[in-house]
Design goal:
Elements: H1 5-10, E1 18-21, E2 25-29, E3 37-43, H2 55-76, E4 83-86, H3 90-93, E5 102-106
Antiparallel strand pairs: 1-2, 2-3, 3-5, 4-5
This protein binds guanosine-5'-monophosphate.
Length: about 120
């Protein structure tokens, strides 16, 4: 598998608190949570950033990520109060791990605009 820390989580080389898994996705708790619920939803396929996403090629994967976000939000009890989904892209987007991931944040009122 690939080079990032998330590849090692997928292959179980390093541990994570996994909350959801299916054939194409894995979701686990962020090691440095920014909200009472902070979960990362990642494709098992290695896609570095949003820039490598193509609607044609990845439509099903993206839909699966949103389905997973809804299922996890429901499981975590944050669905009805609302939550935030964030995908950082590249240097200016604040991306640190170059394996595509969606942040699911909830359990408190979020601020806007983001920093
Ligand atoms: P980014 O800044 O790339 O959008 O987000 C990367 C996220 O991955 C950060 O919120 C960071 O706390 C989280 N993270 C980095 N390394 C690990 C790790 O080894 N395990 C877990 N569970 N989360 C990590």
């Amino acid at each position: 598998m690939g080079n990032t820390i998330f590849s090692k989580i997928i292959s179980r080389e390093i541990p994570a608190q996994i909350v959801f898994e299916n054939e194409t996705l894995l979701a686990f708790r962020d090691i440095n949570p920014q909200a009472p619920v902070h979960i990362l939803i990642i494709p098992k396929e290695e896609i570095p950033t949003v820039r490598e996403i193509s609607g044609k090629k990845h439509a099903e994967l993206l839909a699966n990520m949103y389905d997973a976000a809804n299922i996890i939000a429901e499981n975590e009890g944050i669905s009805s109060d609302g939550f935030r989904l964030v995908i950082n892209c590249g240097k200016n987007g604040g991306q640190e791990v170059y394996h595509l991931h969606m942040h699911l944040l909830g359990g408190r009122k979020m601020n806007w605009p983001p920093g």
